[in-house]
Amino acid sequence: MKALIKKNPDIGLWLEDIPEPTCKTNEVKIKITHTSICGTDLNIYNWNEWARKTINTPLTIGHEFCGIVSEIGPGVTHFKEGDRVSGEGHITCGNCRNCRAGKRHLCQKTLGIGVHRNGAFAEYLVIPESNVWPVHDEILSETASFFDPYGNATHAALSYKMVGEDVLITGAGPIGIMAVAICKFVGARNIVITDVNDYRLDLAKKLGASKTINVKNGLITDCYKELNILSGFDVGLEMSGNSKAFKSLLEHMYHGGRVALLGLLPESTKINWDDVIFKGLQIKGIYGREMFETWYKMTQMLRSGLNISKVLTHKIPVNDYIEAFKIIETGNCGKVVLEW
Q: Could you give the CA distance from residue 262 to residue 285 in angstroms, rounded to a whole number?
């Protein structure tokens, strides 16, 4: 089968023919139709420091996907050939304290497809039945292919009560942009998002942001009077992975505010802890998606009218994958989907 692999420990990816995976007991084989490129995939493509210490080559990459069930292994009971599906890219042990308590997203033995084992950028993917998620008829395959980051946005945005709240989002990447739409859908009063990329800030505006701020030429406090914000924000979603953005978010939180921290911040990050302690802020680390409560919520929101389609800006045939990665590197895009 055709697959995008990290063949060698070097910059780039290779489109190669590799053996088709076999479907074993309790596993589902999926014929991939669409995959979406993640920042993790870009890191692997560029072979940065994280990739060099994490990835063992050769490896089929990719963890955002949609496809059709082509085969089921012995013991599979909830899926059949022809079903359209996506799936959770974190494969957990099932036996640790958190897994047994129904908190699989906190499993310390998690293996990521496309990172620790062969992934979805291939004509076929095999994963455990417990990781497969059905895609309803009214949801487009292109959208289902980026359920993974949409799930990140959902997990973060629904961590705290949102109705009537003023929300500050730092980082207008695809996850931050989708979080804008989710916050608006579930009843936030104002949603302000910051970044330095005008293209992505414009996308955020289209998905419902009350105010977009390019912090290179504007201040967050500039919007307070316009939006009738008196003393700061009730909920903060940090999605940039930028130290300065995180520090700024904490400065602009209202006393007793709640912060969801999804962006991967560098070890050198320093903050003013007075902003956390004296304001009594709550900070919650966000990793992945709650399995599978987040998946249920994100599916039902789409079926109830949430529209995140504008975050998808490019659909590209898989043979042109180099062009797709170049587009992502420019930053002038939302989600980029590869068609198989």
A: 6
Alpha carbon distances (Å) from 80 to 30, 108, 132 = 11, 31, 11
Alpha helices in the chain (DSSP H): 39-46, 49-54, 97-100, 141-144, 147-157, 174-185, 198-206, 224-227, 243-251, 274-277, 293-303, 321-330
- CATH of the structural domain 152-285, one choice from 3.40.50.1820, 3.40.50.720, 1.10.150.130, 1.10.10.60: 3.40.50.720
**Fold of the 2-145+307-339 domain:** Quinone Oxidoreductase; Chain A, domain 1 (3.90.180)
For 145, the token pair is: 């292919």
Answer for the pair 186, 158: CB distance below 8 angstroms, yes or no: yes
Separation between Cα atoms, residue 202 and residue 200, nearest integer Å = 5
Side chain identity at 334, as an amino acid letter? G
Residue 146's nearest CA partner among 300, 305, 306, 38 is: 38
- pTM for the full predicted model: 0.96
Rounded Cα–Cα distance for residues 338 and 331 (Å) = 17
Alpha carbon distance 328, 80 (integer Å)? 35
Give yes or no on whether 2-145+307-339 and 152-285 have one common fold.
no
pLDDT value, residue 91 = 97
CB atoms within 10 A of CB 230: 8
The predicted structure's pLDDT at residue 74? 98
Q: Strand order of the sheet with strand 166-170?
A: 211-214, 190-195, 166-170, 233-238, 253-261, 282-285
**The 3-state secondary structure of 194-262, one letter per residue:** EECCHHHHHHHHHCCCCEEEECCCCCHHHHHHHHCCCCCEEEEEECCCCHHHHHHHHHCEEEEEEEEEC
Q: Within the chain, which residues score under 50 in pLDDT?
A: none
Give the model's pLDDT for residue 99. 97
